[in-house]
Amino acid sequence: xxxxxxxxxxxxxxxxxxxxxxxxxxxxxxxxxxxxxxxxxxxxxxxxxxxxxxxxxxxxxxxxxxxxxxxxxxxxxxxxxxxxxxxxxxxxxxxxxxxxxxxxxxxxxxxxxxxxxxxxxxxxxxxxxxxxxxxxxxxxxxxxxxxxxxxxxxxxxxxxxxxxxxxxxxxxxxxxxxxxxxxxxxxxxxxxxxxxxxxxxxxxxxxxxxxxxxxxxxxxxxxxxxxxxxxxxxxxxxxxxxxxxxxxxxxxxxxxxxxxxxxxxxxxxxxxxxxxxxxxxxxxxxxxxxxxxxxxxxxxxxxxxxxxxxxxxxxxxxxxxxxxxxxxxxxxxxxxxxxxxxxxxxxxxxxxxxxxxxxxxxxxxxxxxxxxxxxxxxxxxxxxxxxxxxxxxxxxxxxxxxxxxxxxxxxxxxxxxxxxxxxxxxxxxxxxxxxxxxxxxxxxxxxxxxxxxxxxxxxxxxxxxxxxxxxxxxxxxxxxxxxxxxxxxxxxxxxxxxxxxxxxxxxxxxxxxxxxxxxxxxxxxxxxxxxxxxxxxxxxxxxxxxxxxxxxxxxxxxxxxxxxxxxxxxxxxxxxxxxxxxxxxxxxxxxxxxxxxxxxxxxxxxxxxxxxxxxxxxxxxxxxxxxxxxxxxxxxxxx
Length: 639
Hints:
This protein is mainly alpha-helical. It is 61% helix and 5% strand. The protein has an 8-stranded parallel β-sheet with strand order 7-6-5-4-3-2-1-8. Helix 4 (50-65) packs parallel to helix 9 (135-148), helix 6 runs antiparallel to helix 9 and helix 18 packs antiparallel against helix 25. It is globular and about 75 Å long.
């Protein structure tokens, strides 16, 4: 099928340069890329808006500097030849206009997480090598060189793992590496509005069309907040849309966080999700037209799944129902083996119902918030150490620690003070002189503190490895396929995709090892903060780094002493173990060998009481409320 070149001037006038550039990824026909690129360049350069022409040419070129064209099926040689055509086209533009466009791209890259990001690192390394006589061509060549020499290019291209962006911005550049997932939450949505003033203007336009919002914004805070969060997601949905179309929703999904204030109310959460899904469908129907899909616009469902907080047992019903609707879920606020295993099984139930009803079974995710789990264990251990040091000595050392890390001192008991002074943000490691002094006062050695810190850093990975093994170890996958067929009456093909459509999704990482010690070729996606992506890249550039050492590290094991020592922590037991019911089900009904596993894991009714759940849930609710208040204030400006 020939590339669609109609309506390009209208699309560019509407600021849709990304959609125009991405038309080259729609209906790929290997062997014809050169002709498609020629036709698209000709149509684009005929437009009178020189700035939009330059922006579109850069975006089209990035599809060939990156791996986008190869993802949809074009050969590497075709992509090289296509990039050469773009280099010639950019060289023919006005250098001054093109420089302004390139500078804007670089500024955008550096704005992601205040430059502490992988895209910020790219910009730093590119900008000093630009050719003033050919800013567009030199930008594309340097972008290609920098991306392709990086560890993420290697990990994705050589099937070490899949990757996602745990942030609302910066996805356009990561897509060219091959990133295929994005997560957001209320904290990140608010940050997106801080970093991109254009989002506020878009929200004002949306508010202007709702007289009830303008009249009584406080009464419609949740509705305005949902609209604002969706607006923050529109760029991500757009960026991923052509590749989601290509894979028929088997990847390139965007995760939308449901209102954390009603996460214990299944019915309301499900209705919110359905409403947001409908709005996203309307947005994407229009965007598909700019992509050149014509009458097929909107035929594919939104590449959107919903983040369901496992703060309450209601998450189980929400997960099952959304998947049975063919919508999809991404469970979040999850830290423990029992939570994650249960929710994956619940998602399977929904997926089976969807498959039997002829609906979509889409890529979904089970988040593993390993970094937050480790932080919680560390905070509990800090409290234990200072309490064990005694009221006098422990209190004295807490005062010194607060003076050092700037923590507010709430007063009260040693335990109460340690909860505030020893939080992860203020005390990221047990290997702190005041903590060590407290441990020694309680009869511990500094060496034992160092060992416990090293063990705690591995705790989140231990959970991820255990969950992944249950479902996706090579010896276990056939057992789940057989069980799904028997339990739900689906075909072998359907059962295989139901199992295959779920990815374990480690998140909230603190150190590069959280990525490198958990790489898996299938059913595993790392979603990562921008600063973490940058840190992994920097670690990979150190002498002696060998990526091959980490292939399929998700199936590796640490020496037994790590988990044995962590078992001294009661919350590690709750995080690492199954429940008795899950152990019986997995072993007896599915046939997965968990006979040696212990059963001190949390029941669903206990999820709300777990320390990590309470801390993250509280943070998300506070961030949501603050964001909703911001949206109300914006609505008042419109009023």
